[in-house]
């Protein structure tokens, strides 16, 4: 079995797959290193032969997670590294090492699955869009604040926007104009995300007509589903790229 980790700025997504056929043994999303060890350790009949990691955290934080995994499960974690070119995709950044590894792996995964031009929209702490042309050229992309950042900016930098998580969840039962602070903020931020997604789709259409595949991933992907009805929702897109960048055995 192989343990796979996607360490984002807010959460660690994890899954355990069988090495032979990549079938999924278990997986989840946790908010701390210790919660990760507890969740993976709770899997029945766990037999890890390896671990691969993608991280957008600092080198120290990433090393700490790898060390903890080594101690808890006696496997060496292999961390995905930037590349100028891989699996037919060419990194479009002037300095390829600066492109977020989650974006790079999602681009690899998308191009592998679609085998044609792709737009990847990844909605996590940040909202990201990346464009890969039919010949594998990564054309670059966009980074904006995602739902958690938009929401926390408003809560932090205004005096009268205050609400709890439970009412935030309730507020998203509709996107009608808000009649309370929580509705106005939560629905407004979702409309911003949807606007982001629609604008990226327009760009892709201008570049490629109808000849492209849209991928939607990240924890907040469901919030823009209706703004991108043609999108393939692939929650584990980064893991698809991670397996390509870090083959084990
Ligand atoms: N089961 C879940 N656990 C935690 N967050 C979730 C879950 N489902 C959706 N989310 C939302 O996903 C977002 C985080 O997305 P994610 O892609 O994990 O971000 P990052 O990679 O930046 O850590 C948050 O806005 C959070 O509310
Ligand atoms: C843009 C990001 C902060 C997104 O992080 P996430 O929302 O996945 O937590 C990450 O991809 C990153 O640190 N990128 C480096 C900067 C760049 O891609 O240009
Ligand atoms: K991420």
Largest sheet: 5 strands, mixed
Order of helices and strands: EEEHEHEEEHEEEHHHEEH
Percentage of residues in strands? 15-25%
Oligomer: single chain
Walk me through this protein's architecture:
It is found in: Cytoplasm. Pathway: Cofactor biosynthesis; coenzyme A biosynthesis; CoA from (R)-pantothenate: step 1/5. Belongs to the type III pantothenate kinase family. 37% of the residues lie in helices and 24% in strands. It is an alpha/beta fold and 249 residues long. Strands 3-2-1-4-5 form a 5-stranded mixed beta sheet, sandwiched between helices. Strands 10-9-8-11-12 form a 5-stranded mixed beta sheet, with helices on both faces. Bound molecules: adenosine-5'-diphosphate, the ligand CC(C)(COP(=O)(O)O)[C@@H](O)C(=O)NCCC(=O)O and potassium ion (K). Residues 8-9, 56, 98-100, 102-103, 124-126, 128, 143, 146 line the site of ligand PAZ.
Please describe the topology of this protein.
Layout: E1 2-7, E2 12-17, E3 24-30, H1 33-41, E4 50-55, H2 59-73, E5 77-79, E6 85-86, E7 89-90, H3 101-114, E8 118-123, E9 126-132, E10 138-145, H4 147-157, H5 165-171, H6 181-208, E11 213-217, E12 232-233, H7 237-245
The structure holds adenosine-5'-diphosphate, the ligand CC(C)(COP(=O)(O)O)[C@@H](O)C(=O)NCCC(=O)O and potassium ion (K).
The ligand CC(C)(COP(=O)(O)O)[C@@H](O)C(=O)NCCC(=O)O binds at residues 8-9, 56, 98-100, 102-103, 124-126, 128, 143, 146.
Active site: 102 (proton acceptor)
Protein name: Type III pantothenate kinase
Binding site for ATP: 6-13, 125
